[in-house]
Specification:
The chain is mainly beta. The chain is built from one helix and ten strands; from the N terminus they run ββββββββββα.
Length: 112
């Protein structure tokens, strides 16, 4: 896909783009404004949830630790690990969110 291709899914303070939906892998570009409060800590029993930062700064909760990540940083939450994140900067937060295998996250974004 090119820089402006992919399926755009917009919500308040959120502008996402679905980049891949394969059985083995799902990739979504997530974009959040500075007012985004974050994703509460949670875990997954069926997939690895990982993030590659493109722009901005995020604070991730990974188990009992808080990790701050900027552009070019990568965070992966293995199956069963409690994780969450928030926009830790003053500007836009953009990151790739990869799920392996695909568990229907893009479909849930479309319905929200």
């Amino acid at each position: 896909l090119g820089p402006s291709e992919g399926e755009k899914v917009a919500r308040a303070h959120r502008h996402h783009r679905v980049l891949a939906e394969l059985p083995e892998l799902e990739v979504v570009e997530l974009s959040f404004g500075p007012d985004f409060e974050g994703v509460d800590p949670h875990s997954h029993a069926d997939h690895v949830d990982s993030f590659y930062l493109l722009e901005g700064e995020a604070e991730f909760i990974m188990g009992d630790e808080a990790v701050r990540v900027g552009p070019g940083g990568y965070v992966a939450a293995p199956i069963g690990v409690v994780h969450g994140f928030r926009n830790a900067g003053d500007g836009e937060l953009r990151m790739l969110n990869l799920h392996a295998p695909n568990v229907g996250f893009a479909g849930r974004l479309r319905q929200a």
